[in-house]
Design a protein that fits this description.
Radius of gyration: 16 Å
Oligomer: single chain
Helix content: 10-25%
Largest sheet: 5 strands, antiparallel
CATH architecture: Roll
Length: 127
């Protein structure tokens, strides 16, 4: 892999993606949370190509600039571009578009670790 390589994920907006909290529906468009999850998946596509069988990726950061709405039934195309691969660190920038409309942009970070090490990190601490 080299800087500038891209991976693309297409997300169909459904009612499950709407902005909603415990107090009810905020608005019937794709939420920032749902866009962020799709952006992280687009970056993860690089991790899936890079990791070995005994490794797994873990998110390290996510930034999202939500610029415009995406409506139910629309397809959001998220294109992740490899910004940096430094050892086991993978950093991607991304843009999310519906047609020509820029819906969001930002960056994601992930780290590739041995599954055994990751299991120890994620194990609950017992007091």
């Amino acid at each position: 892999m080299k800087t500038g390589d891209t991976r693309t994920y297409v997300k169909l907006v459904t009612a499950a993606d709407f902005a909603q909290f415990d107090d009810g529906l905020v608005h019937a468009v794709c939420s920032t949370f749902s866009l962020a999850q799709a952006a992280e998946w687009a970056g993860r596509l690089f991790v899936l190509d890079m990791k070995a069988e005994d490794e797994e990726g873990i998110g390290t950061f996510l930034s999202i600039n939500h610029k415009a709405p995406a409506f139910e039934g629309e397809q959001v195309v998220i294109t992740a571009s490899l910004v940096k691969q430094d050892g086991h660190e993978v950093v991607c920038s991304y843009v999310a578009r519906v047609g020509e409309r820029l819906v969001a942009d930002g960056e994601t970070g992930q780290k590739i670790l041995k599954k055994e090490k990751l299991a120890k990190i994620l194990a609950p601490n017992k007091v």
